């Protein structure tokens, strides 16, 4: 389950952030996860709970914002959601599209508490 190693990286970042700001506890973590990031939300929550145990993030609220898979057509400039793995423009049918969101996996916000 690669959610575990992702959560371990997140905990490392939280430790660095807390140390840099002189805080002792993490109370909230907000993640942005793209539809195509290859992460399962339930697995992520479970992994975070396990990995954060006995760390400064134990008991922190985990908020997950799911980001839809969106693309922009290079031919007509339309923005549209990609559904059913149809990687062509929904408006003009051009295959010249670029994915603009939906692959992100990032920490959007961290709330820290004083020692
Ligand atoms: Zn188009």
What would you note in describing this structure?
There is one protein chain. The protein has a domain at 2-67 and 102-113: hypothetical protein PF0899 fold (2-Layer Sandwich). The protein has 115 residues and is an alpha+beta fold. The protein has two helices and six strands. The chain has helices at residues 2-21, 41-52, and strands at residues 25-34, 61-67, 70-73, 79-81, 97-101, 105-113. It has a three-stranded mixed sheet. The longest helix is centred in the first third of the chain and has 20 residues, at 2-21. Bound molecules: zinc ion. Zinc ion is lined by residues 73, 75-76, 78, 89, 91-92, 94.
Which structural traits does this protein have?
single chain; 115 residues; alpha+beta; hypothetical protein PF0899 fold; three-stranded mixed beta sheet; three-stranded antiparallel beta sheet; 2 helices; 6 strands; 28% helix; 33% strand; elongated; binds zinc ion
Low-confidence stretches: none
Radius of gyration: 18 Å
* CATH class designation of the domain at 2-67 and 102-113: Alpha Beta
Along the chain, the helix and strand elements come as: HEHEEEEE
User: How much of the sequence is in beta strands?
Assistant: 25-35%
Count of alpha/pi helices: 2
Average predicted local confidence, pLDDT: 94
Q: Report the CATH architecture of the domain at 2-67 and 102-113.
A: 2-Layer Sandwich
Q: Tell me which ligands are bound.
A: zinc ion
